[in-house]
Write a structure and sequence with these properties.
Elements: H1 9-19, H2 23-33, E1 39-44, E2 55-57, E3 60-62, H3 64-76, E4 80-85, H4 88-93, E5 102-107, H5 109-112, E6 116-130, H6 139-142, E7 148-152, H7 156-164, E8 169-173, H8 176-185, E9 190-194, H9 195-204, E10 209-210, E11 216-224, H10 229-244, H11 247-254
Parallel strand pairs: 1-4, 1-5, 7-8, 7-9
Antiparallel strand pairs: 2-3, 5-11, 6-9, 6-10, 6-11
Length: 267
C-alpha cells in the first residue's frame, strides 16, 4: 500500500474527520452524505459478481459494494438504499444529478474530473474472452480488421480496449447480459472485461477462451459526487479502516472471493 496524498491534504482530511466526531459535525455530514435521510449507494448489476459488480437476489442485492454500503450506513446511523444501474458509466453520468450519495466503481482520469475518489480497494487485470471455436489465441491475432470486440458501454475497460486495439472494432453495449448472449451465439468475436469475471464466464460458455495477456489494470475505489468534502473525508476514513480491520476481506469472502487477494492503494 502506498499513500497518494498531496501536500496539505492530510491536514484537510484529519480536520474533516475530527469534525464528524462532534454533534454539529455529525449533523453536517449527514446533511451532505444522506440528504434524503438514507444513504443511497449506487451499484451496477450483472450476474458476474466480483469486487465491483453486484447481483440481484431473491431478497434484494448482494456484492462487495452492497456489504460496504450497508456497513457505511450503519456507521452513519441511517438506513441504506441501493440505486441499481446497468453499468459504471451510468453511475458516473448520474454523479451530478443528486440521485446517489456513495458508490464503489472503477476509476480512471476521465472519471476523476466528474466525481471525487477515495482509496482504491481492488486492482484487476483486464483482458478478452473469445467466442467458441475462435482461432484467436493472443492479442496479435485478435487485433485484426473485421474482428468484433464488445465492452460494457462507457467504462474504463471499454476506453482501455479502444486504446489498445488498432484494427479490431470495439462496440459498447449497456449490459453484461446482452454481451453474454452475443458471445454465446457467436455474434461477436470477443468481450473485454476483468480476467476474474471472464474466467467465470468461460465456465458458463463451453468452447470460449480467456486470453493470457493483460491489456490494462482496472482499479476500483470508493467515490462520492463532486463538491462533497465531508462525504469524501468520511469515505476515505471508512475505506481505510475497512481495509485495516478486515471488513473488506470479510466482504470479499461473503461474496465468493475467498481466493482473491485484497489488492489496495490507500489515499
Amino acid at each position: 500500500m502506498f499513500n497518494q496524498f498531496r501536500p496539505g491534504m492530510p491536514g484537510l482530511f484529519l480536520g474533516l474527520a475530527i469534525m464528524t466526531t462532534t454533534p454539529a459535525g455529525a449533523d453536517a455530514l449527514k446533511d451532505e452524505i444522506a440528504p434524503t435521510g438514507k444513504l443511497r449507494v449506487a451499484i451496477a448489476i450483472s450476474p458476474a459478481g466480483g469486487a465491483f459488480w453486484s447481483t440481484r437476489t431473491a431478497t434484494g442485492y448482494a456484492g462487495v459494494p452492497v456489504d460496504l454500503g450497508k456497513a457505511m450506513a450503519e456507521q452513519l446511523g441511517v438506513p441504506v438504499e441501493y440505486i441499481a444501474h446497468n453499468n459504471s458509466g451510468q453511475i458516473v453520468d448520474a454523479a451530478s444529478k443528486g440521485t446517489w450519495d456513495i458508490t464503489f466503481l472503477p476509476k480512471d482520469p476521465e472519471r476523476e474530473g466528474r466525481m471525487s475518489f477515495g482509496p482504491i480497494y481492488e486492482v484487476a487485470d483486464a483482458t478478452y474472452i473469445v467466442k467458441p471455436g475462435s482461432m484467436v489465441t493472443n492479442f496479435a491475432t485478435l487485433d485484426q480488421p473485421g474482428i468484433k470486440v464488445a465492452a460494457v458501454n462507457n467504462t474504463t475497460t471499454m476506453r482501455g480496449a479502444i486504446a489498445h486495439l488498432k484494427n479490431a472494432k470495439v462496440t459498447g453495449y449497456q449490459t453484461y447480459d446482452e454481451i453474454f448472449g452475443l458471445l454465446k451465439a457467436g455474434e461477436i468475436d470477443a468481450f473485454a472485461l476483468s480476467r476474474d469475471q471472464l474466467n467465470a464466464m468461460a465456465k458458463q460458455i463451453p468452447g470460449t477462451r480467456v486470453l493470457d495477456e493483460t491489456f490494462k489494470q482496472t482499479v476500483t475505489a470508493v467515490a462520492v459526487p463532486p463538491n462533497h468534502p465531508l462525504s469524501l473525508a468520511f469515505a476515505v476514513k471508512f475505506l481505510n479502516e475497512a481495509i485495516a480491520n478486515g471488513m473488506l476481506r470479510k466482504a470479499y469472502d461473503n461474496n465468493g472471493l475467498k481466493d482473491r487477494p485484497v489488492r489496495t492503494q490507500t489515499k
